[in-house]
Amino acid sequence: WDCHGLPIEWKIEEKYRKKKKNKDDVDPVEFRKECRDFADHWIDVQREQFKRLGIFGDWENPYTTMAFDAEAKIVEELLKFSMDGSLYRGSKPVMWSPVEKTALAEAEVEYHDHTSVQIDVAFPFVNVPNEDLEGARVVIWTTTPWTIPANRAVCYGPDIDYVVVEVTEAAEGALTKEGDRLVVAEALLLDFVKRAGIENYLVISNLKGSAFEGGVLSHPWRGHADAQGYYDFDVPLLPGDHVTTDAGTGFVHTAPGHGDDDYQVAHVQHGIELPFTVDESGCYYAHVTLVAGKHVYKVADDVCDLLTGVNALMGKGHITHSYPHSWRSKAPLIFRNTPQWFISMEKNGLRDKALKAIEDTNWYPAISENRIRSMVADRPDWVISRQRAWGVPITVFVHKESGEVLRDEAVNKRIVDAVLDGGADAWVAIPAQDFLGADYNADDYEQVFDILDVWFDSGCTHAFVLEQREDLKWPADLYMEGSDQHRGWFQSSLLESCGTRGRAPYNDVMTHGFALDGEGRKMSKSLGNTVSPQKIVEQYGADILRLWVAAVDYKEDVRISDQIIQTQVDAYRKIRNTLRYMLGNLAGFSEEERLPIDQMPELDRYILNRLSELDKLIRDHTAVYDFNPIFRELYQFCIGELSAFYFDIRKDALYCDQESSIRRRAVRTVLDEVFMRLTTWFAPILSFTAEEVWLSRFGDDATSVHRQVWPETPAEWRNEALAEKWTMIRRLRRVVTGALELDRREKRIGASLQADVAIYVADHAYVDAMAGLDVAELMITSSARIIESEAPEGAFTLEDVKGIAVVTAAASGEKCERCWVVSEEVSAHGELCNRCADTVAVLDAKAAE
Predict the structure, then answer these.
(1) Which of 76, 370, 490, 776 is the most buried (most CB within 10 A)?
(2) What is the reported pLDDT for 829?
(3) pLDDT tens digits for 795-816?
(4) What is the C-alpha to C-alpha distance for residues 448 and 393, in angstroms, rounded to an integer?
């Protein structure tokens, strides 16, 4: 269980708010204890739910990220990044939740439609790089008006075509006015003109983006009487590869403290200083004049009024677009420049190692490899700090004068040992000097109390689970989770392991989709379309839910509803009936009764061949985690080949032959082989049913079916020629079955044993296939024959089976009261046919002994 992080902290804070308590007034160790107790409670609840679902696990000894040994290992892993120089404190814009007052990882972000204010803003020139731009202003477009106070540059596309236009007529109420000279991308001119209410204009000049090189603009609020000089700085025009003509004006408003592209171009490439404009609550700092103290979510109108006041607002409207929200609070996020702790993607070649590890890993489905590769290739440095209370602290000291992280193995060991002994609370409870020892003075160092990103916790699971448990090994055979974990657990594990061990902690990664409702919609309480696993388990049993999981293609998003579950209930009932039939007919089976394959009739050898084919298919699909074809084939085998074919034909031998007959011994031997395979093949799917069936046959003292291995299949069972032959026979039998069904519907017969069938075939291969076989036995009729000739008019045919026709008639003779076969023999023995008379005589003799 992942036990740290915002969701649990949020729940404890809710509890405090109800009591009108402030979290900041609570002792940190006490607060952390409440979080720990909360996690413990839900571990117990969820553990029982997992058990009820039939999921195997060492439930008495689970791994939890809040266990002291786990927290100590997480600290140890973190300090490895510290020691190799990959860990650093920097200032850059990160995704920030003003509601939760913390940075969020990409994996904690959801994207929802959001309506924002969009504005077009004109920036005047301070230094004109081209005479065609004299008297003109550059127009930017943004959907975040609140970032205007943080503007420090404007970016252009060097290869984009731009135009200088002069407004000759503006619509009533438009923000532009006659005589305004404005610069926008030529491809976006018509969109801009529409937004700005410009009815007529004159194109003054055409320029390539490169013409703006060296240009300098002025912030629209420069010289504002109430700004106290805060905006009196130059705004350089900078080339940017991220500038496109997809939307806007072809110029990008650049606030390096509030966006990654902005940060990279303005700060990293051109050294522009990062401004700090917004505090942790989403309000402007006091030094940000004109908007000081206002909240970014509520400042759009104020910004627009201020821009209008200096004739800089050219257009205003609304736009609905995909926007990042906190996965927990559901509130929109902001990019905010804050001091945070990072793990470098470039230091020590972490990005290259991770990309190489992705290549070396098997991804299921294969397309997911492209997804995680693109994420890792383009991702920024890993922000690992959170401004929270519940989690593993970033256990480092920073020298106050130099700003350098203290890197000392002896100090690190004392920290790890303390956490192992008392958990992560030790970092808060133990004086800093105890960790620093005699070589350092605590007054010279800042102790960092930021909390580690919970994805770093989860990324370390391989270290404190696989490497520290004797029954496990590193790396893992398989990591399995939902498709969202390419940016979460799969990636954090990859980066952590590549940074500390040089390779991925897994050999294979399997990704599943998400559960949707029956109509393919995302489940939500507001729609009332949620499906509770617990409710399904209570109503139908866990095996029905497990059957649904096995039946769907987990690689895609999957649908679930009451109607879909009912389909699985029907399928389950048929599978259970198959297993029950075998149980009943295997009573008393012994090894002495087992018949070698070379003595078996063809039909029974055909079923063993089918088991051999299924065995290969199941092993092949299991090896690549492709499970729904396994269920599909097993289900079809149960209902199509066993119940409707093999069982139907062989019930006569089971119920009516002598116990020692070859046919009866053959079918009982085959049933035993089918039973051993079906129960063990189904065990991972129908866990409870397979165990119930297994113990029903072998007794409650028998070893669990889940302790068995899949039986090896003898090579002699595989017989491709026999399989081809019986495919023809089953095709022929399907036509006969169709003819008998028609007779039944039209009340000409009741049971198929009342019929005599003549089967007309055009292909001699059918005659060869049936040679030496009891045609009536296979057709479950009292008499039957193959005739190689053209069928008489009116014979029954199936459109999709050419060259076979059937004529049915009433069987001649009397009905045997024991086996129900209609035969001329019956009159000779009173009520029994010859076979049944012999069998009864043997039974009577045994009874008399």
Answers:
(1) 490
(2) 64
(3) 999 999 999 999 999 999 899 9
(4) 8
Cβ–Cβ < 8 Å for 231, 221 = yes
State whether 69 and 35 are in the same domain. Answer: no
Other beta carbons less than 10 A from residue 300's beta carbon: 19
Identify whether residues 499 and 414 lie together within a single domain: yes
What is the pLDDT averaged over residues 273-289? Answer: 88
Alpha carbon distance 155, 246 (integer Å) = 15
If asked whether residues 134 and 69 sit together in one domain, one would say: no
User: What integer pLDDT is reported at residue 31 of this predicted model?
Assistant: 87
**Whether residue 19 sits in one domain with residue 144:** no
**Which single residue is written with the structure tokens 């970033």?**
394
Residues 678 and 658 in one domain: yes
What are the start-end ranges of the E strands in 344-428?
362-364, 382-383, 385-386, 397-399
Amino acid at 516: L
* 727 assigned to some structural domain: no
Domain that holds residue 544: 533-718
How many Å apart are CA 282 and CA 332, to the nearest integer? 11
In a domain, 338, yes or no: no
Residue 759 in any domain: the answer is: yes
Helices (H), 166-257: 189-196
In this structure, are 680 and 703 located in the same domain?
A: yes
Helix (H) or strand (E) holding 239: strand 234-239
Residue 268 has a pLDDT of 80
Q: Tell me the DSSP string of 495-531.
A: HHHHHHHSS-SEEEEEEE--EE-TTSPBP-TTTT---
Instruction: At 351, list the tokens.
Output: 């990005």
**How much is the mean pLDDT over the chain?**
91
What is the CATH classification number for the domain harbouring 699?
1.10.730.20
660 found inside a domain: yes
Give the confidence band of 45 by pLDDT, cuts at 50, 70, 90: very high
- With tokens 């252009």, the residue in question is 156
Tell me the per-residue pLDDT of 376-394, one tens digit each, with 9 for 90 and over. 998 888 989 988 888 999 9
Residues 136, 257: one domain?
yes
Provide the pLDDT confidence category of residue 763 given band limits of 50, 70 and 90.
Answer: very high
- What are residue 206's DSSP bridge partners? 163
CA proximity to 198, closest of 157, 235, 236, 170: 170
Give the residue-averaged pLDDT of 15-19: 82
Q: How far apart are CA 44 and CA 86, in angstroms?
A: 38
Same domain, 676 and 554: yes
- pTM, to two decimals: 0.75
Query: How much is the pLDDT for 22?
Result: 76
CA distance 757 to 782: 9
User: Which residues are registered as beta bridge partners of 119?
Assistant: 142, 316
- Cβ within 8 Å of residue 312, ≥6 positions away: 121, 122, 123, 220
Residues whose CB falls within 8 Å of the CB of residue 703, separated by 6 or more in sequence, listed in order: none
- Give helix 562-585 / helix 542-551 axis angle, nearest 10°: 100
Number of domains in the chain: 5
